[in-house]
Fold MmcQ protein.
Amino acid sequence: MQIKEDVLAYVRETYHVDIEYLWKRSPGSGIFRHADNRKWFAALLIATKKSLGLSEEGDLELLNVKVGDAYLLDTLAGQEGFFRGYHMSKGHWLSIALDGTVPLSTICRLIDESFLLTASKAKQQKLRPPRDWLIPANPKYYDIEHAFDDTDVLNWKQGRGIKVKDTVYMYVASPVSAILYKATVIETDIPYRYTDTNLDIKALMRIHLEKRYAPEEFPLETLKEYGVSTIRGPRGIPERLKERLS
């Protein structure tokens, strides 16, 4: 069926992975897996329709993918063309009928999610979508209040997990105690080594200023209303606070 061929082509072109046919008893079934950790991210299986709870006779080609959101898994499993994981963990895997019921765009999106969920930590970090961070800046060690006076680009201590295209909101510590800047990360892993009793820098990132905030807009007292009471290192941002900052 064409939908199956389209899926095989998508995986090959997007992830440079070909299907592996492993079972002599089911020569039409196969798996797709990561080259590094060897984990499966999808499986092409053939099931009888009756084994899936359908009333018709005959077989049905399925694509099994991993789903990280339990609510999404429950929701999809109740829709036409989807079943709880056939021959796999029904709490984490979803079977998709390859009979044209489910649009190719939806199948590809679920393959992408499964690929990321089953990837190694290093690959997950590389492939993950851009994130938003709250990072500290101590005016005792750097004149951060005037750092962007003559430039929109600044080298800054790189926090663990931060990568290019991430957004950083810079919280300037006491006596300012407020978020002053929003910036986009444009380069990471710039070699740099500095250590003293108060600071340990192993690499720098280059950031581009996107927005300034007045100290009274997002002081620490306001951040506490969103559950942010301390900013000692890079941390995520509550969704409600991110909406206000944007």
